[in-house]
Design a protein that fits this description.
With 641 residues, this protein is mostly helical. It has 34 helices and two strands.
């Protein structure tokens, strides 16, 4: 309605009637009770507009375009009336031009060839003595300018950056942003004008100039070097905004023009990156912003966030970075999840620059892992992974394992994989590595990847002093987890280790100092493997590992040979062909006596690893040679045989 009213001021009573007619159209559409009734009304009005458009001298063209825009907003096709916008733009009066340009921006876009027809008119309007008409042309270019149009009008727009009118300078700067985005080769034409505007006293012009300078800096590093000489001016402007008193025109939430402050901080961050002199020149003002900005309202938080980004992105001194991290720490305690989210993401960038400063907020970050918001949890987890190092691996691994027990299903696979990676990379010793991996197998259940379980097996094969200890730990874990149908990786690893090192598991001589005093008999080991074979929920691949392990123990546990043969006989009636075949073949081996069984089922040699450092948990994950573990522990035949 306001559009129609503005357009209706073109000078006579008929134009006023146009305004009324548009209001009547709006009322009529709103009064329609069904979609069919609305479509009929729109079709009737469209026919009337078409008839009116045939009259080239019609004084109601602006009224028709206003109604076309309304129909366009309702979702009805208006392409048949788009040329009327071109006609209105070419007219002399400001009200008609205003409706024409508005229609051009609403009804058309840069992909339509009609826009090329108005290029000459726009160029003429850019030179118009009426600054409002020049503003209309700049506004239209800023919305629908194509690459071809940009090349045509770039000289005129660049010259308007030097206009005496602040309204035109502001519009020209915004239009220039669009032009340099469309045609980066034209950027050099706007550098000089932008440099002049950075000293402008008008807030609106300055805001647009900083936006244009940012865009130019993104396009070419040469422009960054050029604008660095303006750092003192930008610092002075920012300092004046910090110290400025209350101004009703620019005050937002108790802060002087926070929009301009945010843009200035972004530009300073860009100019200070990689340049020590520029960073030193802006360090005082960054410290002032970080120390004196009130973060109780959203405007203040926006300024603080950009100040933190500027401090992190420039060559700031250590004390300034600590101040920035402390601000982010306060953000983590905010009730607004949006603020906490950006704080976590920003801290993730800071970790690479100053890990120690972020470590001070480790407890708060870990608490965010338990947040009810899924995005907060995901970001906090990523940050925790980045915080882990040799000195805090024990604490953070425990926190992550505790969280694994209550984590959402969609997090568990990635979480178990990350925990296994961190354990392998930062484990202080092999015994802790074994204990923590056993706990991961318990709490991770079926979410532990076969690759992680295989890595654990390789570690055990290369740690002779821990083989008995690891076997007992896995025995206890598997025995206590018999009622849990999702811990198949634990069952598979336990079966594999017990099959290879069962004699060491039951031997007292392999016990370590401080180990849990668990007495395990040979019969207990055999019964556990039998229970895995009898578990209806266990996958065939796990049972294949268990039966191979049982066969190996048959040659080492002399008192359990008959029990092993009995278990083999039961498996021989299994509906799984692979298990049947294995049971039959193992029984055949035992029938031929120890001379064949003992060498055939002997202990496998340690699996070869590509990196010794990986074995000790010093380097990366430690990938293993593919032939070392053919399909164990998750696949068949993992225990040999």
């Amino acid at each position: 309605t306001s559009v129609a009213t503005a357009a209706g001021r073109s000078g006579n009573g008929d134009a006023f009637a146009m305004s009324t007619r548009l209001r009547e159209l709006i009322r009529s559409v709103r009064a329609c009770k069904t979609a069919a009734e609305e479509r009929a009304l729109v079709a009737k009005e469209s026919a009337a507009i078409r008839a009116s458009l045939k009259d080239a001298e019609s004084q109601y063209s602006h009224r028709n375009v206003a109604k076309l825009m309304y129909l366009h907003m309702l979702g009805y096709p208006t392409h048949w009336g788009q040329m009327e916008c071109v006609t209105l733009i070419a007219r002399a009066s400001f009200p008609e031009k205003r409706i024409g340009y508005l229609g051009l921006m609403v009804l058309l876009d840069e992909r339509q060839e009609v826009t090329m027809m108005v290029t000459n008119t726009i160029k003429n309007d850019l030179k118009h003595r009426n600054h409002f008409i020049a503003g209309l042309a700049l506004c239209a270019l800023g919305n629908i300018c194509t690459a071809e149009m940009a090349r045509d009008v770039a000289p005129e727009v660049a010259s308007l950056l030097h206009s005496k009118n602040s309204y035109v300078r502001k519009k020209a700067a915004l239009c220039s942003v669009r032009i340099v985005k469309k045609v980066p080769d034209l950027a050099d034409e706007f550098v000089h004008g932008t440099s002049e505007l950075l000293s402008d006293r008008h807030h609106g012009v300055l805001l647009c100039a900083v936006t244009l300078a940012l865009e130019l800096c993104v396009l070419d590093q040469v422009h960054v070097t050029h604008f660095r000489k303006h750092v003192p001016v930008l610092v002075k402007i920012l300092m004046s905004l910090i110290r400025a008193g209350y101004s009703a025109e620019h005050d937002v939430g108790g802060h002087a023009d926070p929009f301009l402050q945010v843009k200035l901080l972004r530009l300073l961050a860009k100019l200070g990156a990689g340049d020590a002199d520029a960073s030193d020149a802006m360090s005082d003002v960054l410290a002032n912003v970080a120390s004196n900005t009130d973060g109780s309202k959203n405007a203040g938080n926006a300024i603080l966030y950009e100040a933190v980004n500027a401090i992190i992105g420039t060559e700031s001194v250590g004390g300034l970075r600590v101040l920035a991290v402390n601000i982010l720490g306060r953000f983590l305690g905010n009730k607004d999840n949006n603020i906490r989210y950006v704080a976590l993401n920003t801290l993730a960038k800071v970790v690479a620059v100053d890990t120690q400063a972020v470590q001070r907020h480790r407890h708060t970050i870990v608490e965010c892992v338990k947040d009810s918001d899924v995005t907060i949890r995901r970001s906090a987890l990523q940050l925790v992974y980045a915080l882990v190092n040799d000195s805090n691996i024990k604490t953070l691994a425990k926190e992550l394992l505790d969280y694994l027990g209550v984590a959402d299903v969609e997090f568990k696979s990635d979480l178990t994989r990350r925990i296994a990676q961190l354990i392998t990379k930062y484990a202080p010793d092999r015994r802790w590595h074994v204990d923590t991996m056993v706990e991961l197998l318990i709490k991770g259940g079926s979410y532990v990847a076969e690759e992680e379980a295989r890595d654990f097996v390789v570690l055990i094969t290369n740690s002779p002093e821990l083989q008995g200890y690891a076997g007992r730990a896995l025995f206890r874990a598997a025995f206590e987890s018999e009622q849990h149908s999702n811990r198949f990786q634990l069952s598979a690893v336990a079966a594999w280790v017990l099959g290879e090192y069962g004699d060491g598991v039951v031997a007292q001589s392999t016990r370590l100092q401080g180990e849990v005093n668990t007495v395990i008999a040979e019969a207990d080991v055999v019964k556990l493997l039998e229970s895995i074979l009898g578990d209806y929920h266990a996958p065939p691949a796990v049972k294949q590992v268990a039966i191979t392990a049982l066969a190996k123990l048959g040659t080492r546990f002399k008192t359990q040979t008959s029990a092993v043969r009995g278990a083999m006989g039961k498996v021989g009636t299994s509906a799984n062909v692979e298990l049947q075949q294995r049971a039959s073949e193992f029984c055949g081996i035992f029938d031929r006596g120890p001379a064949l069984a003992v060498p055939l089922l002997e202990r496998l040699p340690p699996f070869v690893m590509k990196s010794k450092e990986a074995l000790h948990g010093v380097a990366g994950r430690g990938k293993h040679e593919g032939t070392a573990v053919p399909s164990a522990p998750g696949g068949g035949g993992g225990g040999g045989g």
